[in-house]
Specification:
There is one protein chain. The chain has helices spanning 20-31, 39-47, 100-115, 130-139, 153-166, 196-201, 203-211, 229-245; strands at residues 8-14, 34-35, 51-57, 63-75, 80-91, 121-127, 143-144, 171-172, 177-178, 186-187, 221-227. By secondary structure, the chain is an alpha+beta fold. It has one domain (8-262): Gcn5-related N-acetyltransferase (GNAT) (Aminopeptidase, 3-Layer(aba) Sandwich). Helix 3 (100-115) crosses helix 8 and helix 4 packs across helix 7. The longest helix is centred in the last third of the chain and has 17 residues, at 229-245.
């Protein structure tokens, strides 16, 4: 079953407002695509997050995707900043190509940007699969690591700093990756494989695998992107057009955030 556009909705929910039934549904969906994704580990990781952006069917309320999120205080070398860390993230394959999760997450970022009163915002994510890195490369003007030009030293330092803060003892500065050791979560063999043709013809995928050759073993590539109002303006304009036409999106508190290449699995941020 492939969902038509408009049949899904997404919004942020604080952890305390996510029901036990929803958490069970989240784990069931997530564990279908990851090895070593037992319920205890999933619950432990979720308990450390602030909440999640949940994707639901409008008609039934069934969960079809999610991304867990956590705000992280940062120092970007110049002033205090806020990092938004994306943890476990998944979207039902029937919904791949749909923008609902991306829109819900963008709405969350936009609300946070307005509340932050000019404090710099950064998206923090760790990637064990190429789809996450492609999402970063296709949607952000300033991000780390870059496949197309030299890295921004400030963003590189931020990636190193949050990796060491959130995952003490797991960050390898020589390789620039997070290694959680044997038994860590990893994508199932048939999920998001990288073929020789993909390496040859897609420089983004080729770069990801060169940076993180151990992705099959669950190694994670720490990434960071700068969140600016110029990045959020297109979404804001879209929401204004919806409001003017009388079809505004549901508020982010409702239980109800690409390209086809990048709209499926994103990342698993296990701690």
């Amino acid at each position: 079953m492939i969902f038509d556009r408009g049949k899904l909705t997404a919004g942020y929910r604080p952890l305390r407002q996510i029901s036990a039934a929803d958490i069970q549904a989240m784990h069931t969906l997530f564990s279908g695509f990851y090895e070593n994704a037992d319920a205890a580990t999933f619950l432990r990781d979720l308990s450390r997050k602030d909440g999640a952006v949940l994707v639901r069917e409008r008609a039934t309320g069934a969960i079809r995707g999610f991304t867990t999120v956590m705000k992280v205080p940062l120092w970007d070398g110049e002033r205090d900043a806020i990092g938004v860390f994306s943890g476990d993230t998944i979207l039902d394959p029937a919904c791949w190509g749909d923008r609902t999760l991306k829109d819900g997450f963008t709405r969350y970022l936009l609300q946070l940007w307005f509340r932050s009163l000019g404090v710099p915002l950064y998206w923090l994510l760790i990637s064990k699969g190429y789809k996450t890195y492609m999402l970063l490369a296709k949607n952000f003007a300033n991000y780390y690591p870059r496949h197309d030009r030299p890295n921004d030293p400030k963003l590189q330092r931020l990636a190193q700093a949050y990796s060491q803060k959130l995952f003490p003892g797991k960050y390898d500065p020589d390789r620039g990756i997070l290694d959680f050791g044997e038994g860590s979560q990893r994508l199932r063999e048939d999920v998001a494989p990288i073929t020789p043709a993909m390496r040859l013809h897609n420089p983004v995928i080729n770069y990801f695998e060169r940076c993180n050759p151990g992705w099959r073993q669950g190694h994670e590539l720490p990434c960071v992107a700068e969140i600016s109002i110029s990045l959020l303006k297109p979404y804001l304009r879209k929401e204004q057009r919806k409001a003017n036409s009388g079809t505004s999106a549901p508020p982010a508190s409702e239980p109800a955030v690409d390209d086809d290449e990048t709209a499926g699995l994103q990342q698993s941020g296990s701690e």
